[in-house]
Amino acid sequence: MRVCVFDLDHTIVNSPLDLAAMALDMRALLERSCGPLPARTERYRVGELITRCRDEKPELEPALWDLALDHERRAVADAWLEPGAMDAIVGAQAVGYRPALWTNNAREVTLVALDRFGLGPHFDLVVTRDDMRALKPDPDGWRVVAERFGAMTDAVVVGDSWVDGLAAAGAGIPFLAYRPREADLERWNIVPVARLTDLKQLPAWLEARNGRGG
Predict the structure, then answer these.
(1) Which of 203, 92, 103, 97 is nearest to 161 (CA)?
(2) pLDDT of residue 214
(3) pTM of the complete model
(4) Which helix (H) or strand (E) holds 155?
(5) Those residues with Cβ within 8 angstroms of residue 43's Cβ, 6 or more apart along the chain or in another chain
(6) Quick one: which of 22, 54, 57, 171 could link to 142 by a disulfide (CB 3.0–4.6 Å)?
(7) Cβ neighbours of 23 (radius 10 Å)
(8) What CA–CA distance (Å, rounded) separates 181 from 30?
């Protein structure tokens, strides 16, 4: 069995979701209860804030997720389909791959986006943060994929971000980068198996991969 696992945000669906603003709001709420976080040059990411919350103030975790969900709900209202997304998903099926989705978004918001653009019926599996023990870049979401599909002869993860690349690497799965930020890949030592500038290129790349024996 061959499986092609897609990221959602900025890969097949785009939106004005501002993860930095989300994290700032979550940090502010956490600091009101736990005091200031240690200063550092880069921002705290959502997954890091959740981990700290679980360690220091676990009863606050639902409120942090409510903040995140509010940001996601507002962003999905203005979401749009990434050019070539449907061609990539349907084309992957046509060349023998089972499409799956692996996203850090909530299931509620993910299903809204998939339903709006008619993508839902094309996925054999949708893995959201509601199904995972930890967000990407942690590879835990792959556990859900592996449990669903069992033995796989080939698999690939398609995503735009370094978090997708690290998650794929942690799961031991090749990463196909879609319009990535090269500086992020270099910083996190991520080496994609290939890069795409157009999602319509994906089916041909997968078919050629089959011809090379995976």
Answers:
(1) 103
(2) 54
(3) 0.95
(4) strand 154-159
(5) 20, 23, 24
(6) 171
(7) 20
(8) 30
